[in-house]
Structures are given as structure tokens and as C-alpha cells.
Amino acid sequence: MSLNLDTSAWQRLTFGDAIENIAVRVDDPSQAGVDRYVGLEHLDPGVMTVQRWDAPDKVEAQKLRFQAGDVIFGRRRAYQKKVALAEFEGICSAHALVLRGRPHYLEPDFLPVFLSSDYFLDRAVSISVGSLSPTVNWRDLKVQEFNFPPLDEQKRIADLVWAIERHRAALTHSAAQARGALAQVTAARLGSLPTTTRLGDLTTTRSGPSFSASDVHDSPVSGSVPVMGIPNTRPDGVIDLEGVGHVTGLPHTVGRIDESSLVLIRTNGNRQRIGNVYVPPLEAHGHAVSAFQFLMQANDPADREFLFWVLSEDGMQQRMSDGASGTVGLGNLAVRWLNEQIIPWSANPSERNATVEELKNHNSALTAIRAEIDATSAVSRAVLADVFGGN
Questions:
Q1: What region, left, alpha or beta, does residue 326 occupy, with left being phi > 0 and alpha being psi -120 to 50 degrees?
Q2: Dist CA 181 CA 359 (whole Å)
Q3: Measured in whole angstroms, how far is the alpha carbon of residue 336 from the centre of its chain?
Q4: Each residue of 275-292: pLDDT tens digit?
Q5: Rounded to whole angstroms, how far apart are CA atoms 119 and 389?
Q6: Residue 1 pLDDT class (50, 70, 90 cuts)
Q7: Domain spanning 195-345 has what CATH number?
Q8: Which CATH number fits the domain 11-148, given the four candidates 3.90.220.20, 2.40.37.10, 1.10.10.10, 3.40.50.150?
Q9: How far, in whole angstroms, is CA 113 from its chain's centroid?
């Protein structure tokens, strides 16, 4: 793809000259006078607008205020690429930067486009400091130099990228409708099964290993194990293996994904993400999972897909969210609690298989929409790469 851009007129500016850091601090979130709090857990990589939030009275400690039109950039773990335009006012995590373009240099619609590009994000990652939670500091970011197109070209670029983003958002809405229909069918079908059983009688579940950041490598090295993290388990139910870390020093007994495996989110700041369940693709076999996830292995691999549908059912998802320990901050799901859950069951393998096939058929429309969403996202990435690739 080529947009045939003439970059000869682009202007080189420091980040701080072109973009303002809005550091308006709020000491008591419950008294902020707004009704939306945006944490880093609410920002979805590749989604250019804020789509999720929580109530301010659910959080404590100092936060940052933002206005409609500001862009929230997750400066902690910038490699997660969490950048989103806020279309409303609210408060956000202090582990973010609230950014606003200076009108003389930036079109408002161009700012989130620029901040979503690898041109910016790769630089942000490169200047991050710290090992366990690498963070971008404003004093380092503001002196970085970037090339910016003239205002009229910014508008042309932004119009194209936002047209693609609106199409992606429309597809996401269609996916939500399809997901709602699937949820109704899933609950009804599982509810019709003749009996129940204890989950722990069908599975073996354990959390992933803990390890030091110094043991993580970007590519395979001698003795390393590929380990999936939370960023690899996307909110849309897809496992994305991009950016998987390769960890050295793990015991040979560490659990590995195979044909019997499911992956569940064990620990998260967003309760609705706790218990989210994934069927790993074939290319994930041999991977371990992080300490924030469970590796669940079906005693009979033939039951893996049935167990996936049981665990992904909305009622079960809510039970796992509610069953997580902790009242603020990170919630944790316990293996013992999970093993004791009573789930729908049939002793007849043919009935279990028929259940899986029926639900898979209903899921086909949702799968098709998600594939189109992925294709649309790929087009957006290609456009951004073409725009900023020569800078």
C-alpha cells in the first residue's frame, strides 16, 4: 500500500513543542465530579477510542483529569500499545499521560492517529525506564523529535484512518449483537443437559510460573520457554502470539499447552476479565502461561471444547468474576474454588459432542465478523506504516 506522500514539507519538532501533557491531578477520585474512570485495563490495543470505563468511586489514590478530545496514552508498559481518544470527560490512571495537541502544529483528529503509530510507540518503548514495569517519563518523552506533516496533509491522513476506524467500530457493534445471540443459545443448550458434575473431577488446573524480567528475552535463546502473558489473551477471545516473551530458568516441570489445554485469566484489575477462557491455537502448543493465568488441562482431551463452552457461558463467567478474591486492585481466582464449581454435564459423549457442534455452528457468524475486524485492523496498520514508515 502506498499513499504517495510527499514528506519534504514535513516539520521536525520535539514532542513537547507539538503536544501538551495535561497533568491535572485528582487526589480523591470519588469527589472528582465526573462519572467515568478509565484505567489502563480499559484501553484496548488497536482501538483508537475509549470504549470501556468504570465508576470513580471504585478506585482510590491520585488520578489524572481529562477532557473530551484528549488522548490517553498508557505510559506504563508502553509495549502494550494502549492509546485512545476520550470522547467524554473523566479521570484516568496516573500510569497514563493525558495528551493534547497544540493547535498551531496538530489537527485534533491527527493526534490519536500519530500516537497509535509504531513510529511513535516504538520510540516510547525505547525510552521506557524500569525493569518490572517499564514506564515512559514525560521529561524524556518531551525532548524526543518527530516529523509531522503540514496541517492540510494531517487532515487527509486522519480522515482516511478514521474512516477505517469507524468501519472497524461498526463491525465491533455487529460482533456484540452476534455475541448476545450466541450467549442466549449457549445458556439454553447447556441448561438442557441432564446432570451436573464437579469441574475439578474433569480437569487439572495450575497457574503459570513467576520469573524475573531479566529472564525474559524477545526471541528464543538456549533453554528458554515461550510464555504467553495477559496481552496475548485478547478481550475478544482470541489468542495473539505477537510479542510472546521467551523465559529462561524455568523448571522442566512447568506446564505446557497441548491438545488438552485451555487458558484462563486468573488475575486482573478488571473483574470482568477474570475467568475469560481461551482455546489455544496449534501454534501455541509448547508455550507456558504467566502467573496471571491458569493452564487448565482436560483429563480427556476430547472434552476440551465442551469445557470451553461451559466456562465461557455468561453465567459461569460472572461466577468467576464474583468468586475472585480482593475488593480493590487486582482480583485473583483460586484453583481450589475453581475445582469445586458444579457445571452442566452429560455422561453421554455423543450428547456432549452434539452440544459442541450446535454451539460452534451458532458461533460461525461471530467468527466471520471477527475475521473481518482483524482484516480491517490490518488495513489500518498498513496505512499507518505507509504514512510514518519513511520517518
A1: left
A2: 11
A3: 27
A4: 999 999 999 999 999 999
A5: 7
A6: low
A7: 3.90.220.20
A8: 3.90.220.20
A9: 19
